[in-house]
Design brief:
Bound molecules: the ligand O=C(NC1CCCCC1)[C@H](C1CCCCC1)n1c(-c2ccc(-c3ccccc3)s2)nc2ccccc21
Mean pLDDT: 95
Low-confidence stretches: none
Shape: globular
């Protein structure tokens, strides 16, 4: 049984990424807002666009702290951000949803999201994903590294130097793999399960345009940044 050990460099890398991930969170807590009041479909849609716009901005700031990201070709940096923004949003939403809350709060939050205006057909796959993320009980380092691995996906549209992105992603995957073994020694398959969630995440994110245009209201308004990111 080989001894898994995180090197000093990997420890430093993990600290940089986790600190940046915790630093770059959107200010107001959307879960608290949703728990406070019941909003109309229009108000919820506006809340989503506000949350999403500020989340893209903090995602850009977060990526600047990923060692090696700023050394990538500038157009590839943009392609990686554009290609991962929706997945990062659903991943963050899943983590917000799975946070430990006082008893009964998660049920209220789920109800508010079910009634927010999202079309019925997307609710089940979305909550299946949220619950599968919740079951993993990720530590914050795993959450930060999983988001980093998602951003550093080499086969996003328009990425020119895929090898450079692959090298960076492999560096992060190696740290994440060791962390999973050390954090979940009783579950050797944990790392594989974690990566399996990225497949579910990509599938869920494929529906994001339909989710938005089918929001139960007329005249969906988007910010210019979201028109860029959401293909609407
Ligand atoms: O605010 C939100 N998410 C923030 C995004 C940025 C990062 C922090 C979280 C929304 C709210 C849902 C209810 C109505 C208001 C908006 N939200 C969702 C989403 C459902 C559908 C979503 C989507 C994304 C892109 C495209 C098409 C659809 S996100 N799941 C949540 C789980 C827990 C707490 C909030 C959650």
């Amino acid at each position: 049984k080989e001894k898994v050990e995180i090197t000093k460099e990997q420890q430093a890398l993990m600290k940089i990424i986790t600190d940046a991930y915790n630093r770059h969170q959107i200010p107001q807590d959307v879960a608290k807002k949703l728990l406070q009041d019941q909003y109309s479909a229009e108000e919820n849609f506006l809340l989503l666009t506000e949350m999403a716009t500020s989340q893209v901005q903090v995602l850009v700031e977060f990526t600047k702290n990923i060692p090696g990201f700023l050394s990538l070709d500038r157009e590839d940096q943009i392609a990686l951000l554009k290609g991962s923004a929706v997945e990062a949003m659903f991943l963050r939403s899943a983590q917000v949803f799975s946070r430990k809350m006082p008893s009964g709060h998660t049920e209220v939050l789920e109800e508010r999201i079910r009634k927010s205006g999202i079309s019925e057909e997307f609710i089940t796959p979305m909550f299946n994903f949220y619950k599968s993320i919740g079951e993993l009980h990720m530590v914050q380092e795993e959450q930060a590294l999983l988001t980093t691995v998602t951003i550093l996906t080499p086969d996003r549209p328009y990425v020119k130097d895929q090898q450079a992105v692959e090298r960076l992603q492999e560096t992060m995957l190696d740290v994440l793999r060791k962390l999973c073994v050390l954090q979940h020694p009783q579950e050797p398959q944990y790392f594989a399960r974690l990566l399996g969630r990225l497949t579910e995440l990509r599938t869920l994110s494929h529906y994001h345009t339909e989710m938005l245009v089918s929001w139960r209201m007329n005249d969906h308004k988007f910010t210019p940044l979201l028109c860029e990111i959401w293909d609407v």
